[in-house]
Amino acid sequence: MMPKGFIMDRISGEKRKDTPKEAVRQRIAWALLREDGISFDDMASDFPVTIDGRRRKIDIAIFHEGKPHTEQNISRVVVCRPEPAIGRTVVRIRDHQQADKDLVELKEIMTGIDGCRYGLWTNGLDFFFLEKRATRFEVDFDPISYWPTAGDSQGTPETASRAVMRRADEAMLRTAFRRCHNFIHGNEGMPKDAAFWQFLYLIFCKIHDERSPRDARQFWIGAKEQFEPQGQKAVRRRILTLFEEVKQRYQSVFRGNEEITLSDRALAFMVSELSRYDLLRTDVDVKGAAYQEIVGTNLRGDRGQYFTPRGVTKLAVEMLAPKETERVLDPACGTGGFLTATLAYMLHKFRDEQKSNDTTEEFNEVTQRLSDYAQKYVFGADFDPFLIKASQMHMVMSGDGRGHLYNINSLEFPEGHLGDVRRAVQECNLGTMDIVITNPPFGSDIPIDDPVILRQYELAQRWERLDDGTFRSTGDYHGRVAPEVLFIERCVRWLKRDGGRMGIVLPNGILGNPAAEYIRAWILRNTWVLASIDLPVEVFIVDANVNILTSLLFLKRKTDEEIMAEARGGQVEYPIFMAVAEKVGFDRRGNPLYKRNPDGTDIVTVNTVTERMVRKGKEIVHTFTRPEREVDNDLPIIAREYRAFLEREARNYAHLRGL
């Protein structure tokens, strides 16, 4: 049990008071293990030392590998401070000189411990690394971009090799992405949109560079290049050369006239933040979370568009359970959240089938399999060219899966004037998709009123209720219709008739308002309703900053024969999976929620965790057990219960078989 107001120390396994500073310490300790390969056994929290005759406690002391925890064996120290309460506000990123007063304590500790070579001061957003230079007569400190991984020494070009690149921890990669965006927007003064694209150009460069042979890589930075004008210029030369290669490699994404306009200082800062990470080997979910950190500040909801929270995209994909040979489409793909969630689902599936350690050969095999799947079976469309480009970049970051992405108006399709219409008709016409999954723009304030579009839709017609409870079209059309209503019909029409299924995010009014009864009648006539999941308001408040109640509706298109049979004999009764998600792992402010016992204490389970890291070409494995609090999240439970529902009911209902 964990009393309220306490958290578990990852290093010692003991409970500590839950304070803002402690939250930073625990995040850093986890990153030291997962990214730097430093075992918890070689760390200590609040380690007491004597500095100039005064007793002090080091927030995190790191000892030489496998050595006793004594002051003489300390090799690195970390000073933690509470994270500033700024939310998602863009702030200027300080340099070492501007943070000089904050670094006094760190320098005093490093000076007083002879064997300590490296130090870090952090408040969870600012990170200042120092390397100590000691002679007989003085001690001095050099700012460095990052310190070495466990067992490595500080290098220059060697920092680019796979031997020391780290698989990213989610919290740290989100912070790195946020720091990069903040530096461009806050320090360089670029508008947010421009900062967003400059950041994505560098992500493209990073991904492309990781696929190059080690001796040909250019996305690296020497330990001190970031802080020297000549070093900054050297970084710029490497990156500009790399960006020209990227534009040639991804001509479907780039026009060729794009430029990296960052200053030498900003470019060096961003390369120092990103070069340490092995993005190809980092889990798709982790990269998706970090990408959302940036996109969420740039994607506005002024046209009914909202970034779909990752918990929702993951739940929808798990419930639809795409197969490797099934075509998946998001007709309002935005930045590609559902598409990359599909890639993450397939990647986990491929790895589970492999049932072995992630060697280089196996990694390459799975990566190629995922890329082939994405380029053959994943489709996305959006009216906004900005979002299509962002989605393309998200797909590449998630596994070189550029997929088939189209700048079209999905509600106007297969008509329309946008440039990708003809290609989309050839590659993903109506009636050709196994799975459609989407969060369409919705709202009465952005209605569709173009008569050319409205006349494509039965749901744009006026319907009247008959005495027997059914509905009949009057043949007249509404003058304006909310886009989500039309998207329901469009998604159904995009599905194959022999088993095509879909998941769509809808405002709750469609499923409950009396005025929308004709919509529900149309759905029941044309589809099998598989499931309906009520989502709590927290889902969109935290990730999209919009207060709206939504549901996930899952449907399977009926065949013509099934529709005709019901027209003759009446609608068939069948079970529908229904669930209400009350908790999604966080509250309205984004603070994590944990499961609790009746007495209010947190439920704690002891987990065995295995972390692998490649060091100098060899795999290093860390296995440890630690008590962990259980996140209170209904969504994974709902996904499991839905699969159990299908297994149980498919014996009696043919339309549920094979799902």
What ranges have pLDDT less than 50 throughout 5 or more consecutive residues?
A: 154-163, 300-304
Q: Which architecture of one domain does the CATH hierarchy give at level 2?
A: 3-Layer(aba) Sandwich
Mean pLDDT reading: 87
Top-tier CATH class of one domain: Alpha Beta
Reported by name, the CATH topology of one domain is Rossmann fold
Strand proportion, as a percent range, falls in 15-25%
**Would you tell me the structural class of the helices and strands?**
alpha/beta
- Which overall shape is indicated by the principal axes computed on the Cα atoms? globular
Keywords: Endonuclease, Hydrolase, Nuclease, Restriction system
GO biological process, one term: methylation
Protein name: Restriction endonuclease subunit M
GO molecular function, one term: endonuclease activity
Task: Write up this protein.
The protein is of the alpha/beta class and 659 residues long. Among the domains are: 6-154, tt1808, chain A, CATH 3.90.1570; 299-582 and 636-656, Vaccinia Virus protein VP39 (Rossmann fold, 3-Layer(aba) Sandwich). It is 36% helix and 20% strand. It contains 19 helices and 20 strands. The protein has helices at 20-34, 104-112, 170-187, 192-210, 229-249, 264-274, 284-298, 310-320, 337-354, 360-377, 385-399, 421-428, 451-454, 483-494, 509-512, 517-526, 538-544, 560-569, 635-649, and strands at residues 6-8, 15-17, 43-51, 54-63, 74-80, 118-122, 127-134, 139-144, 328-330, 378-382, 404-407, 435-438, 461-465, 471-477, 501-507, 527-535, 550-557, 577-580, 604-615, 618-629. An 8-stranded mixed β-sheet has the order 11-10-9-12-15-17-16-18, sandwiched between helices. Strands 3-4-5-6-7-8 form a 6-stranded mixed β-sheet. β1 and β2 (15-17) form a beta hairpin. α8 packs parallel to α19 (635-649) and α9 runs parallel beside α11 (385-399). Residues 154-163 and 300-304 have low confidence and may be disordered. This is Restriction endonuclease subunit M. It comes from Candidatus Viridilinea halotolerans. Residues 285-561 form the DNA methylase adenine-specific domain.
